[in-house]
Amino acid sequence: MSDPFDIDPPLQPLRTGILLVNLGTPDALEVGAIRRYLREFLSDPRVVELPRALWLPILYLYVLTTRPAKVRHAYAAVWTEQGSPLRAYSLQQLAGLRAELARRGHDLTVELAMRYGNPSLRSGLDRLREQGCERILAVPLYPQYSASTTATVIDEIGRQLATFRDQPEMRFIKRFHVEDGYIDALANSVREFWQAHGEPEKLVMSFHGLPRAVVEKGDPYFRDCMQTANQLAARLGLPRERWLATFQSRFGRTPWIEPYTEPTLRDMARQGVRRVDVMCPGFVAECIETLEEIAMGVREAFIEEGGEDLRYIPALNARPDWIGGLADLVEKNIRGWA
Ligand SMILES: C=CC1=C(C)c2cc3[nH]c(cc4nc(cc5[nH]c(cc1n2)c(C)c5CCC(=O)O)C(CCC(=O)O)=C4C)c(C)c3C=C
Ligand SMILES: [Fe+2]
Ligand SMILES: [Fe+2]
């Protein structure tokens, strides 16, 4: 700490830090680590909006005693040498963004944090503070806004800052669901895939689901997803009958937003569709929801119903055009700062 009573304090340019934030994922491929992760994630009232007195007994007595062992198999199917895919790809994005911003001549500090698990939001804010950042742009890596993802990142940053005496200035990116850098990178990824492997009959854009009741109460997530889907289809020049948007990863028994991904693909196969491609534009980094649920599970379901092939188009991960799009987004949002 500099001398708080210095009577001739030096004027220094204020340093800007960028905090990339994703959901988080278990630290290890072990039931205990998966349980710790699910406990933190599913205890968040922004994620499960049921009254605590009702939800916590279900969470502790049922979900946390049965689900960790079940999803361990899903994680085992996609685990990498760098750990969980979500962490591995997020670290690649961090390295890519640092390099790209430096290449563009910016002197910025870039760190990665996870809303649940590690590296924690607290550790990310501490690392930025230790490096002298007086200004922080938080970039939740969710293209579409939802209270269950984006808002809870902002909430938690606020709770952490409540313990800082000398707080940094903060800016937050709310969404980037129709930003050119994002839509263009998605469109390029599809075009490249089709150039290499040929075009399917239909393209399915599968987004993470959300309880229907949450959208009815005003969460703009469904609308954001549809805007992304429409923009991407337009950018690809796809006629309306060649694409559809669906929702995956339903959790629990209440109705979620529809159409559901797996039942829709089963229906399509039964109705005679032979070749479909599925992409997950809402996930900028590969994770169990894309690699295990879609590329493995939903693919098997489609083939079981008579489909010939379901190909999964990879997430943006560390594609150079996407890292460029992310750098554009950062530049746009630090204007006036650095
Ligand atoms: C229980 C309610 C859940 C809501 C609401 C929800 C919203 C939501 N989630 C994502 C992104 C991801 N979710 C991931 C995994 C995951 N999601 C839930 C539950 C809800 N998600 C659970 C219980 C899990 C863990 C796996 C499982 O037990 O099935 C992941 C991947 C994490 C990983 O480690 O790979 C992502 C990413 C969004 C975008 C979203 C709302 C729009
Ligand atoms: Fe989720
Ligand atoms: Fe899932």
From TrEMBL:
It is an enzyme of class 4 (lyase). One of its GO terms (cellular component) is cytoplasm. Fe(2+) binds at H208, E289. The keyword RNA-binding does not apply. Gene3D superfamilies: 3.40.50.1400. Signal peptide: none annotated. Its EC number is 4.98.1.1. Pathway: Porphyrin-containing compound metabolism; protoheme biosynthesis; protoheme from protoporphyrin-IX: step 1/1. GO terms for biological process: heme biosynthetic process. It holds the Pfam family Ferrochelatase. It catalyses: heme b + 2 H(+) = protoporphyrin IX + Fe(2+); Fe-coproporphyrin III + 2 H(+) = coproporphyrin III + Fe(2+). It is found in: Cytoplasm. Its main location: cytoplasm. CDD domains: Ferrochelatase_C, Ferrochelatase_N. One of its GO terms (molecular function) is ferrochelatase activity. It comes from the Bacteria. PANTHER family: FERROCHELATASE (PTHR11108), FERROCHELATASE, MITOCHONDRIAL (PTHR11108:SF1). Catalyzes the ferrous insertion into protoporphyrin IX. This is Ferrochelatase. The lineage of its organism: Bacteria, Pseudomonadati, Pseudomonadota, Betaproteobacteria, Burkholderiales.
